[in-house]
Design brief:
The complex is a heterodimer of chains A (about 120) and B (about 700). Chain A has one domain. Chain A is built from 4 helices and 4 strands. In chain A, about 60% of the residues lie in helices and about 10% in strands. Chain A starts with a helix and ends with a strand. Chain B has 4 domains: about 140 residues, no CATH class; about 150 residues; about 120 residues; about 160 residues, no CATH class. Chain B starts with a helix and ends with a helix. The chains are: A alpha+beta (about 120), B mainly beta (about 700).
């Protein structure tokens, strides 16, 4: 069981790296979008537009989510888990990584990450 | 000389005989003037006509009319004139020797007045009284006093009323029985005797009330001389026995007040309810009640009446096969057994030209099933039998009392509120924009009758199909014209259907039903403007005319904004993830309750993503062609998804899906076109709520074929 958790943890870390690499072209844009409040992180491991945000980052959000979903699905299939479970695990890692003040959505409620 | 004297005597005798004969023969001509002479100065007069020749014991007449006027007194402000009419009657006389202590020269004379018909009419006309084969006995003491003055002293009078009729406007009291017994010994006071009225009718229609019994005598309370009292009263109301200790009628105020006690009346005696189990509602249990009533100036006022149902009192409704569907528990679960309380109403009989012109009901309100029911003022015109009024319901907790029976199980909660504007015209009724709503909810489970299972089915534990429905927030708006055309606008906050195959959740349902609106085909039901939330999207249909007899109809089901992922979730897919929503038009034809889909089409509303997640082991095990499919579907960003669907009435269906898109990780994102054809029996899947086949299986099957 511990081995499975360890492997899964590794997989999720790799997923985040892959997603980061996958969206390398948007890396700056993603960080800018998050820091400027155009995109926020959701506890399902995907991006979404926070309340009041314009649709400027819509394409970025879509493409990033597509990439993340594909990777989560791959990990899910590998570990016999659901995509949602992997996404939830990934969100915890993302929440830990992003700077304070970034929009995050937890259980349907938007808020800014605390210091 | 002797001969001459004898001749004179003979002539005198002959003259006397002739005189007597003349007096006897001419009595009918001078009888009236004789009566007038006797009654001169008396407060009453008698007119007789068609007098026959008298016999030694009686005399017949065609009609006799006696008019007496009673002066105003402390109880009656105006004089009242009573006219007693007798037709085809006879006055018989007979001397009796019943009294032994009569003075010398006095005798007791029994007068018997018989008539085919007797009527008594007071003026002002408060009522009319009629009796057939009336017989009135009057006993007199008659004699000659000093100076040859004739003395007549009445001793007693009796009149046995049997089957008489009293009427006031259109209200008739029939079968009246009462013994009138007046005597000088009792100062001409009527002693207590039982008044019995067999039947009541109004405007020729029998009233649901009869067998009224009460003790009545003319003796009054000296402290309250204007009050007539009937005691020990009982009446059958809808065949129930109701009673009241006393009814007081104030002659001066013309007001009656009493409290009617209904004691443990079987509910099945109510009109419209039966004792046996049949299609009409049948009832068990008993109700009791207390109804304080006041009657004054043609107005009946009911104040704070109460009806209580004993435990176990229910009304059960059945279907056409006489199977019980549901029952209403009349005894409250909470708050005691009060079925109806604080019932207030005022009923006025409006008279016009001595005819009952209208019946007005106002201030009707009551607490029913814990809620309030009230009505706007009602004026019922008996000529046209028409009335218009609005019934208001407020938080009537009827749902809590409903028990589902037979194939139906479940529970319902919440109060019902609304208004029902009703128009009565003749024997028809109409409703204009009635509305009923409930904040309540409920769940209903329908289990079809158990069918005999094969041993195989029993071994495999195959359960009988069962559908469970839960709903909340029902609202109805409805109108009904007098010819039966009915229009119902309905809304539900949510409706969930669950069965072994899955769950279908609909929310924000609304639509319009038209019933009996087509004179040429009353079996036609029309559902229009139906829409509902489904899986986050919507499902709607503009119009369907369904023939309940032919069991056929045709419509187009429109779906919009349905998330593809929700459809896949319904099938329990684990490896496939899809984003995006779909819309479509699905023409449906129903015949003999079998569905057919005629060239339905479904398309994606925007671009999206399809992921068919496979593990490395699955990829390694797959053949090259399959591996390509897996690679394409690992992250397919579709630009367009098109699907067409047809289904035969037997359920055989063909679904063609065309997907156009790219996979950025596959061959540098070159365009990909994926075609899937799915043949299956949709009817079985529809019945179990699975709206599509198992796509994963289709892909695997396709892969297997390619591998071979």
């Amino acid at each position: 069981m511990k081995a499975l958790q360890k492997n899964l943890f590794k997989a999720v870390v790799v997923a985040i790296l892959v997603v980061g690499m996958g969206s390398h072209a948007f890396a700056l844009d993603l960080e800018t979008a998050r820091s400027s409040g155009l995109a926020g992180e959701v506890d399902n491991g995907l991006l979404a537009a926070p309340p009041g945000a314009s649709s400027a980052a819509k394409d970025l959000i879509n493409s990033t989510n597509n990439a993340r979903r594909a990777e989560y699905a791959r990990i899910a299939a590998q570990n016999n888990l659901s995509l949602e479970a992997v996404g939830t695990l990934a969100s915890q890692k993302i929440f830990a990584k992003i700077p304070a003040g970034t929009w995050i959505q937890v259980q349907g409620t938007w808020k800014k990450k605390a210091e | 000389m002797l001969k001459l004297l004898l001749r004179f005597l003979m002539a005198g005798l002959f003259f006397l005989v002739l005189l007597c004969a003349a007096a006897w023969l001419s009595f009918p001509w001078y009888a009236q003037s004789l009566i007038d002479q006797v009654l001169a100065g008396k407060p009453f007069r008698v007119t007789v006509s068609g007098i026959a020749l008298p016999s030694t014991s009686g005399i017949g007449f065609q009609s006799l009319q006696a008019v007496v006027t009673t002066p105003p007194d402390e109880c009656n402000e105006a004089a009242t004139t009573y006219t007693l009419s007798l037709s085809n009657g006879e006055l018989a006389w007979r001397f009796t020797n019943r009294s032994t202590n009569l003075p010398q020269g006095f005798s007791e004379l029994l007068l018997t007045l018989k008539a085919d018909a007797l009527t008594l009419i007071p003026e002002p006309r408060q009522f009319t009284f009629g009796d057939r084969d009336a017989r009135i006995n009057v006993t007199l003491v008659i004699g000659v006093k000093e100076g040859f003055n004739i003395s007549i002293k009445p001793l007693s009078a009796t009149y046995m009323v049997e089957g008489a009729v009293a009427a006031r406007e259109k209200l008739r009291l029939e079968g009246i029985n009462y013994n009138v017994r007046l005597s000088a010994a009792t100062q001409w006071q009527q002693p207590l005797d039982t008044l019995h009225i067999a039947r009541l009718s109004s405007d020729g229609q029998p009233a649901p009330m009869g067998n009224f019994r009460a003790l009545f005598g003319s003796k009054r309370d000296p402290l309250d001389p204007c009050t007539l009292t009937l005691s020990g009263c009982s009446v059958e109301l809808f065949q129930w026995m109701a009673s009241t200790e006393r009814i007081d009628y104030n002659l001066k105020a013309k007001r009656t007040s009493f409290t009617l006690d209904l004691a443990k009346i079987p509910l099945n005696a109510l009109p419209g309810l039966s004792q046996g189990k049949s299609t009409i509602p049948f009832a068990t249990g008993r109700v009791s009640g207390s109804i304080p009533i006041e009657f004054q100036d043609s107005t009946i006022t009911i104040r704070n009446a109460m009806v209580v149902a004993e435990s176990g009192t229910t009304i059960t409704f059945c279907d056409k096969e006489k199977k019980p569907l549901f029952a209403v528990d009349m005894a409250a679960i909470k708050g005691g057994n009060e079925l109806l309380k604080n019932l207030n109403a005022t009923v006025t009989f409006n008279s016009k030209e001595k005819q009952l012109s209208a019946l007005a009901l106002r201030d009707l309100s009551a607490t029913l099933f814990g809620g309030k029911i009230s009505s706007s003022p009602v004026t019922f015109d008996p000529q046209t039998k028409s009335a218009f009024f609005t019934i208001k319901l407020n938080d009537i907790k009827l749902l809590d009392r409903l028990k589902l029976l037979g194939d139906y199980k479940g529970s319902l909660r919440g109060g019902i509120s609304g208004t029902i504007p009703l128009t009565l015209a003749g024997n028809r009724f109409a409703i204009q924009n009635g509305s009923l709503q409930s904040g309540g909810s409920g769940s209903i489970t329908i289990t079809p009758p158990a069918q005999q299972q094969t041993s195989g089915e029993r071994i495999l534990h195959q359960e009988q199909p069962q559908n469970s429905y839960s709903f909340s927030g029902p609202q109805l708006q409805f109108s009904r014209s007098s010819d039966g055309k009915t229009e119902v606008d309905f809304q539900l906050k949510h409706l969930d259907q669950k069965n072994a195959g899955g769950e279908l959740a609909l929310n924000s349902l609304k639509g319009r039903l038209l019933l009996w609106h087509n004179n040429l085909n009353p079996a036609l039901i029309s559902l229009s403007d139906f829409s509902s939330g489904l899986l986050g999207g919507t499902i709607a249909l503009r119009q369907i005319d369904y023939d309940m007899v032919k069991k056929e109809g045709e419509t187009i089901v429109e779906i919009n904004h349905i998330p593809l992922q929700k459809l896949l979730d319904m099938q329990g897919t684990k490896k496939m993830y899809v984003t995006g929503t779909i819309k479509g038009n699905i023409p449906i034809k129903i015949k003999n309750n079998l569905f057919a889909i005629l060239d339905g089409n479904i398309t994606s509303e925007q671009s999206g993503q399809i992921i068919y997640a496979t593990s490395q082991e699955e990829r390694d095990a797959a053949n090259p062609a399959m591996r390509i499919t897996y690679d394409v579907l690992s992250n397919l960003l579709y630009a367009q998804l098109l699907s067409s669907i047809t289904m035969e009435p037997d359920g055989k269906s063909l679904m063609s899906i065309h997907i156009y898109g790219t996979n950025p990780d596959f061959q540098h994102g070159r365009p990909v076109e994926l075609n899937l054809s799915i043949q299956q029996n949709l009817a079985d899947l529809l019945r179990s709520l699975s709206v599509s086949s198992n796509v994963e299986k289709i892909i695997s099957d396709k892969a297997s074929k390619k591998k071979r």
